[in-house]
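cron nightly-structures :: item 1 of 1
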Amino acid sequence: MKSGKTYPKEYAPSDVSTQDITVRNNLLNAILTSKPKKIIQDTNLFKVMAARRSTRKFDNKRMVEEWKIDKILAAADTAPTAGNFQGFEIFYVKDPKIKEKLVEAANNQPHANTPLVLVFCKNPSRVKLDLPPEILAKFAIHHTRLV
């Protein structure tokens, strides 16, 4: 893999040997450096929020395109966090056995039949503060609400 920053640092594409890495890096750079072309009005924001949906049926044979994953990871990496500490990590889960364990851990939510699950976890070692554990726990709760 070419050197350069990929967001987040733990993200590793499954196979980059057949793909041009500059396309992926250019996409990430465009996402991270772009400015809004216009101000989003409250009414537009509420329309987007009202139109959202919760997907509960998935096609586990159809893989998610890498550019979509890149956009999700770039958005998560640039999302505001308390003190901008970015104290989380994102893990890919493709293994069906691990996904089954996630179903049990997540109150039987039906994500076991998805092709890919992104798991967002707090990593206290990434938060470089001398704060008591109960305060760091509040950061973690705040961050999961953002994601």
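cron nightly-structures :: done
The chain has one domain: 21-146.
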